Design the sequence.
């Protein structure tokens, strides 16, 4: 696997330091609010597990799964494969995401969860790739781990063709592997 990586962008040590920082900030800001962390499968699972283990206030967790189809038209269609099972009405919700790229998935997820009338809704993304944002996306993540350049990255939950999710760091994939 390591031979497929052009460069390690974020090391294991950097990841763990950032997770501790984000979890401490969220724990302070949500003390007494019993928040619900919602993860969007599958890319977020590693970040999610690291985050909630570093949050030291009472909280609940849940997951959803969405699928994006990009057909022959320019607008991709997003559908829910698995919805949340916790009732989030009047609850404080924090969505955890692996990466905020074009913004299509998170915009869809946020709108879907807002319909369930949570008391509040914030977004925490481990990675942000602002150069890739689709025009018209106005959503801004409330908590960002690392802002990264416009490169295709894998590891720490992120995949290429469902592989590399188990790498403990974030690396830039050699472009010859997907070009
Ligand atoms: P969106 O474009 O913001 O809707 O992001 C959709 C999904 O694309 C993310 O949740 C990731 O699963 C995936 N994705 C975006 N950029 C990358 C990348 O650099 N590596 C691996 N997956 C990515
Ligand atoms: Mg993916």
Sequence:
């Amino acid at each position: 696997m390591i031979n497929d990586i052009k460069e390690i962008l974020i090391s294991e040590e950097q990841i763990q330091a950032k997770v501790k920082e984000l979890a401490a900030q969220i724990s302070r800001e949500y003390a007494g609010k019993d928040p619900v962390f919602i993860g969007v499968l599958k890319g977020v699972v590693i970040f999610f597990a690291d985050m909630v283990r570093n949050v030291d206030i009472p909280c609940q967790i849940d997951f959803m799964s969405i699928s994006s189809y990009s057909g022959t038209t320019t607008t991709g269609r997003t559908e829910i494969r698995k919805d949340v099972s916790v009732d989030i009405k009047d609850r404080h919700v924090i969505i955890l995401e692996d990466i905020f790229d074009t913004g299509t998935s998170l915009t869809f997820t946020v709108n879907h969860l807002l319909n369930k009338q949570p008391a509040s809704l914030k977004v925490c993304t481990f990675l942000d790739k602002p150069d890739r944002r689709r025009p018209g996306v106005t959503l801004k993540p409330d908590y960002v781990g690392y802002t990264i350049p416009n490169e295709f990255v894998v590891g720490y939950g992120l995949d290429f063709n469902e592989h590399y999710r188990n790498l403990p760091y974030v690396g830039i994939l050699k472009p010859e592997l997907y070009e």
